[in-house]
Amino acid sequence: MESHFVIWPNRNLFLKSGLTDLLKSKFCNHKFDEQIFVDFSIYNIKLFTNNEWIIFLEKTAMHIILIYDRYMEALANYWMSVSGKITKKVSIRDSYRFLSLNYAREFNHPGRKKLTEVELQVLDLYLAGNSVKEISHRLYTNKKRVYGLLYSLEKKLCIRMKAILVW
Predict the structure, then answer these.
(1) Of 73, 99, 125, which residue is a domain's last?
(2) What are phi and psi of 37, to 5 degrees?
(3) Strands (DSSP E) along the chain, which ranges?
(4) CA 68 from chain center: how many Å?
(5) What is the DSSP letter of 91?
(6) From residue 56, how far is each of 17, 48, 62, 73, 153 by CA, in Å?
(7) At 132, is the secondary structure helix, strand, or coil?
(8) Spatial distance between the Cα atoms of 28 and 98, rounded to a whole number of angstroms
(9) Nearest Cα residue to 66 out of 76, 51, 54
(10) pTM for the full predicted model
(11) Longest distance between any two alpha carbons in the chain, whole Å
(12) Cross-referenced Gene3D superfamilies, in alphabetical order (predicted)?
């Protein structure tokens, strides 16, 4: 019997093709039934700045596996610590390593970058097109703190905030 899996959001044809080939390869020794592979890449960042996506996927009663790129590691670590339905997080650089059943949750290791809840709120508001002044009013803080949080986000995401707006 062939293993079936779901990729969400299903926009990245290269991920779908690569994941299909990888799971059908001789290196895959177990089934991935009832798994949702989440394309947790920087191109989809606007989907992952609030909890609506996780609530939507938790309704499916399937296990969630995040496939993240280098920019999204801190955000993946945040969601991994918040949701119990996320069973694994896999970097796109890990290739065959995630196919092992022994590949465990890694989000509590010291030194791992992880966003805070306030940083996530700032990111959500910033990507929605709010100015620093509007963000400071909504979060009841001053503009200097918002600039500091945006700088912290740039360091944790390894990308300039203005570059994210392009996607």
Answers:
(1) 99
(2) -90, 120
(3) 6-8, 35-40, 63-68, 86-91
(4) 6
(5) E
(6) 24, 12, 11, 21, 25
(7) helix
(8) 10
(9) 76
(10) 0.84
(11) 58
(12) Winged helix-like DNA-binding domain superfamily/Winged helix DNA-binding domain
In a domain, 144, yes or no: yes
Q: Which pLDDT band, with edges at 50, 70 and 90, does 26 fall under?
A: low
C-alpha torsion 21→26→29→33, nearest 10? 30
Find, among 36, 71, 70, the residue nearest to 53 by Cα.
Answer: 36
Place of tokens 């600039």: 147
Q: Are residues 93 and 18 in the same domain?
A: yes
Burial of 88 (0-12, 13-18, 19+ CB in 10 A): middle
**How many domains is the chain built from?**
2
Q: Helix, strand or coil for residue 36?
A: strand
* DSSP code string of 63-78: EEEEEE-GGGHHHHHH
